Amino acid sequence: MAVSSSSSSNIVNCLFFESQAEDAANFYTSIFPNSSIGDVARFPGDGLDVHKQPANSAMAVVFKLNGHPFTALNSRPAEVQFTEADEVDHYWDKLSEGGDETKQMCGWLKDKFGLSWQVVPKDITKIMTEAEPDKRWRAMQAFMKMRKIIIQDVIDAVEGKGEKEEA
Predict the structure, then answer these.
(1) Pick from 73, 60, 71, 26: nearest CA to 131
(2) Could you read off the pLDDT of 112-136 as tens digits, one per residue?
(3) Ranges for the PhnB-like domain (predicted)?
């Protein structure tokens, strides 16, 4: 599950696949009433050595099943003022308490019961589905290096800040 701060629902179910996210979303939406595919973010041609997915294949698929929001993600993990950051910190801190810190990556954590959660700021979904491909790629590169997703660091990467330091 992904915890987001969207106004319609605070919990978005997140399904994790190696490469079948789009096929699975199409399959599930064909079964349940009041279901539809929303945005589909696609992997760029660059970075194949990192994401290991064919260019233009689905990276993230946003969809609804019987009106409930879902996100399907394709990835090949090595293992698996009030701000939005405050909300992410709240859920991350509470859910990760007593969990396995070695399982934390790309916003994913394992709680004390062994259940996996992905805590992502709502802006990540917007960036991954609406931004230009090069900006989506920079966002993906940024959060793949993180345990807990720090939205400002992702936004800085999308905007190209810090590229000179990394070069």
Answers:
(1) 60
(2) 888 888 888 877 877 877 888 888 8
(3) 10-120
